[in-house]
């Protein structure tokens, strides 16, 4: 596993994301890592992120974790495809979420560590499809599929 979180390679101007930006003092600071051919992030939601049932995680939090982990995963997979290293000093590869489908399979318990994993389904041009799974222990509680779009490099003036 790379020691560097994917989000730690984001330059300061792209580090404001509430879910994962290292530069947002109020955010969740989700950190995703490339581990072989998949990505992984670990996160324990604060007890205030309760869903309708006190012991269950709010669905928006689950989608938020997938949102940030999915775009970070897309970037990591694109770096690998391009033969680049994250934080290599060149223009960063940036993806944003175009669509995210989440399926809530089981209630997600609050108060324990959640593990989010991502796998690349397809990378075609600017489009990356990422498969996502969120688990508590051995139980997969939610699955997701993201279409992430690579932002074009800014045009030099
Ligand atoms: C390292 C630093 C990181 C730093 C970055 C860190 C970011 C952390 C992000 C965390 C996650 C977020 O919250 S992201 C925030 C939430 N997401 C957003 O705000 C995105 C809002 N949407 C947009 O800005 C735009 O729609 C884009 C960028 C997604 C696409 O616009 P565009 O650049 O003009 O490109 P466009 O031609 O429309 O689309 C390109 C291709 O994708 C397809 N496409 C576009 N949207 C969709 C869609 N919803 N469903 C299906 N297909 C779609 C098009 O048909 C086209 O296919 P083809 O014709 O080529 O075949």
From TrEMBL:
InterPro entries reported in the protein's UniProt record: HotDog_dom_sf, THEM4/THEM5_acyl-CoA_thioest, Thioestr_dom
Subcellular localization: Cell projection, Ruffle membrane; Cytoplasm; Membrane
Gene Ontology CC: one annotated term: membrane
Gene3D superfamilies associated with the record: Hotdog Thioesterase (3.10.129.10)
Main location: membrane
Domain annotation Thioesterase: ranges: 56-139
Entry keyword set: Apoptosis, Cell membrane, Cell projection, Cytoplasm, Fatty acid metabolism, Hydrolase, Lipid metabolism, Membrane, Transit peptide
Enzyme nomenclature, EC number: 3.1.2.2
Reactions the enzyme catalyzes: decanoyl-CoA + H2O = decanoate + CoA + H(+); octanoyl-CoA + H2O = octanoate + CoA + H(+); (9Z)-octadecenoyl-CoA + H2O = (9Z)-octadecenoate + CoA + H(+); hexadecanoyl-CoA + H2O = hexadecanoate + CoA + H(+)
Topology relative to the membrane: Peripheral membrane protein
GO biological process: fatty acid metabolic process
Enzyme class, UniProt record, top EC level: hydrolase
One term of GO molecular function: thiolester hydrolase activity
Pfam families: 4HBT
Family: Belongs to the THEM4/THEM5 thioesterase family.
Protein name in UniProt: Acyl-coenzyme A thioesterase THEM4
Natural source organism: Variovorax paradoxus
């Amino acid at each position: 596993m790379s020691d560097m979180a994917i989000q730690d390679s984001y330059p300061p101007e792209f580090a404001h994301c509430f879910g994962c930006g290292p530069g947002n003092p109020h955010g969740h600071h989700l950190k995703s890592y490339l581990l072989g051919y998949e990505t992984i992030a670990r996160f324990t939601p604060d007890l205030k992120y309760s869903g309708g049932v006190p012991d269950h995680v709010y669905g928006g939090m689950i989608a938020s974790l997938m949102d940030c982990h999915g775009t970070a995963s897309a970037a990591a997979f694109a770096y690998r495809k391009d033969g680049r290293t994250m934080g290599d000093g060149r223009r960063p590869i940036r993806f944003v979420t175009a669509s995210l489908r989440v399926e809530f399979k089981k209630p997600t318990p609050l108060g324990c560590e959640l593990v989010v994993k991502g796998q690349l389904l397809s990378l075609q041009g600017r489009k990356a499809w990422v498969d996502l799974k969120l688990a508590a222990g051995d139980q997969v509680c939610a699955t997701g599929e993201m279409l992430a779009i690579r932002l074009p490099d800014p045009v030099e003036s």
